[in-house]
């Protein structure tokens, strides 16, 4: 364990992690297994080294450039780019850009639920709803829109995998909801957003974020919102205070 001191006197503790980042395990069989999970493995932040300092008043894109690993950043940006290319409106593009953001707070279980809570103070209600429900919808095919059960899930969990009851219930609720199409859009542009040869500048979405994400003047994590602590967790993932 090591202690790092910031310029403003804050102390951070870094604890080594055996698999800190998906990009660090090239050549291992686990890499392919983890990648087959898709979004569930995206945002393991490397906590064995000091992280880059964040601005005093962090904006959303600062988390993409300074906190999310390459795999995570590329996935979210590619997902948003695919939605935009398909002709969706800016709100759906933003939803795809945010759909796995909770994993930046080191939360993998129920990432849709946590992600919805994380962004709720700053986005339209429909965006947060879609982020929450994409977690359930991705397990259920919808041939009418061209979404089939992912073969990657079969490879990882097996042919006999049973979706938990709470996700089945969430799916049934979402299927009848007026915003179903918004959550379903995430699943459509989620599966095919893992091209390692495609790099997208986060700045391409700056205008969309500016129009649809309510950036607090104090900076994310310091505006006393109900989820400010979650943004601070991403800023200082190793802070034990």
Helix share bin: 40-55%
Biggest sheet strand line-up = 1-2
What structural class is derived from the secondary structure elements? mainly alpha
The main pleated sheet reads as:
2 strands, antiparallel
Summed up, the helix count is 11
Give a short synopsis of this structure.
With 241 residues, the chain is mostly helical.
Give your account of this protein's structure.
There is one protein chain. The protein is mainly α. It has one domain (2-235). Helices cover 43% and strands 3% of the residues. It contains eleven helices and two strands. It has helices at 29-36, 60-66, 70-85, 90-98, 111-119, 125-137, 151-157, 165-175, 180-188, 206-212, 228-235; strands spanning 2-5, 11-14. The protein has a two-stranded antiparallel sheet. Strand 1 (2-5) and strand 2 (11-14) form a beta hairpin. The chain is globular. It starts with a strand and ends in a 6-residue tail after the last helix. Residues 1-47 have low confidence and may be disordered.
Q: What are the SSEs and their pairings?
A:
Layout: E1 2-5, E2 11-14, H1 29-36, H2 60-66, H3 70-85, H4 90-98, H5 111-119, H6 125-137, H7 151-157, H8 165-175, H9 180-188, H10 206-212, H11 228-235
Helix pairs in contact: 3-4, 4-6, 5-6, 6-8, 6-9
Supply the key terms.
disordered N terminus, mainly alpha, 43% helix, 241 residues, two-stranded antiparallel sheet
